[in-house]
Amino acid sequence: MVDDKLRTPEAVRDAERWTAHNYHPLPVVISSAEGAWLTDVDGRRYLDCLAGYSALNFGHRHPQLIAAAHTQLDRLTLTSRAFIHDQFADFCRELAELCGKDLVLPMNTGAEAVETGIKVARKWGYQVKCVPAGQANIVVAEGNFHGRTTTIVSFSTDEDARADFGPYTPGFTVVPYGDLDALTAAIDENTVAVLLEPIQGEQGVVVPPEGYLPGVRQVCTDRNVLFIADEIQSGLGRTGATFACDHEGVVPDMYLLGKALGGGIVPVSAVAANADVLGVLKPGQHGSTFGGNPLACAVAIEVVRLLATGEFQRRSAELGERLRSGLEGLVGKGLIGVRVRGLWAGLDIDPALMSGREACERLAARGVLAKDTHGSTIRLAPPLVITEEEIDLAVTQLAEVLAG
Ligand SMILES: Cc1ncc(COP(=O)(O)O)c(C=O)c1O
């Protein structure tokens, strides 16, 4: 029976009435949030176990980030890149230092960072590697998720993401993820880059076999090919290190960053690379009106400073072990597989039991918000400010859902 005092049903109906149905959200209407907790329009509280697909690594409304945004809102919000503003150099320098790279190119969304990486790699290929005009190719992996632009969906292997959006951008070779021999075989003299997620998030937190990323690094070095690591979801503390590549001591030629870089407040993305790579771009060849705007930079500077303390990476590593042991205890009790890196987990629910969607609906009814990815796989990515007790709460609620 629908309680007509509740505002949620009407708010859900309104949202469905007035928007394109390019998402299938859970029927929860959030109105406020703090730390790891969300409150809906009916006053129900939920533990956030998605964190905006890792855009909220520091939790909702982190005081240091909110303060930076407020201060900047009162001073200067936008200049365009026609002029330089006083937050710009600090942001680029501090992020470059965090990445151990010479230069940063700021954009807004993750997909724009990926597009930027592709453009830079192609230009580098023609100007530095001397690939014949129009012949550059980039090797990518099956099961990838790098965003939604027409070029990016051109090399997606997810039919939902790709079908009916052609004609597709050429110049990409798809190989199985985690298979170094296949990747090596796909590289030819016109390959300018290998573009990979060091852990495939949308695919269900798929961790490649140990040695794969160092192997990719080596083959890229040997064959004069750029290694582009899309750390948009895996980076900035999520896996218990600053970058997922760090777990295997791998340094890519280009980091693609986004999501958490904006502190859950503004869209901020960036490419970080050395001058011999990013230096190929000259004025007029790439840009964005909002990329590197003062508000974005002011917030992102504080994000980088939070990360520079190492505290969030430590929390993610330590609490991730608690999450791992809780989830591994559910294998055989409704889960058939679990992959955990830091505070990031992909859970395969026994499909005979329920779909991922159904599991997330049942979790929501118990006050825990998570999201399915494919079929019966769900992903947990709580804010890194989550506590041990809250992790236990999430695991307990999941156990109850699986127990029926
Ligand atoms: C690895 C990866 N790359 C790129 C993107 C695209 O980011 P955005 O949605 O900000 O365009 C995403 C988004 O989920 C992602 O997970």
Unreliable runs? none
Helix-strand string: HEEEHHHEHEHHEHEHEEEHHHEEHEEEH
Number of strands: 15
Biggest sheet strand line-up: 4-10-9-8-7-5-6
Structural class: alpha/beta
Rg of Cα set: 21 Å
Small molecules bound in the structure, each named once: pyridoxal-5'-phosphate
**N-C termini distance:** 21 Å
User: Approximately how much helix is present in the residues?
Assistant: 25-40%
Oligomer: single chain
What's the shape?
Answer: globular
Number of helices: 14
Beta content: 15-25%
Reported for the largest beta sheet, the result is: 7 strands, mixed
**Chain-averaged pLDDT:** 97
Summarize the structure.
This protein is α/β, with parallel strands linked by helices. Helix content is 36%, strand content 16%.
Structure description:
The mean pLDDT is 97. 48% of the residues are buried. With 404 residues, the protein is α/β, with parallel strands linked by helices. The chain contains 14 helices and 15 strands. The chain starts with 7 loop residues before the first helix and ends with a helix. β11 and β12 form a beta hairpin. The strands form three sheets. A seven-stranded mixed beta sheet has the order 4-10-9-8-7-5-6, with helices on both faces. Bound molecules: pyridoxal-5'-phosphate. The site of pyridoxal-5'-phosphate has 15 residues, from α5.
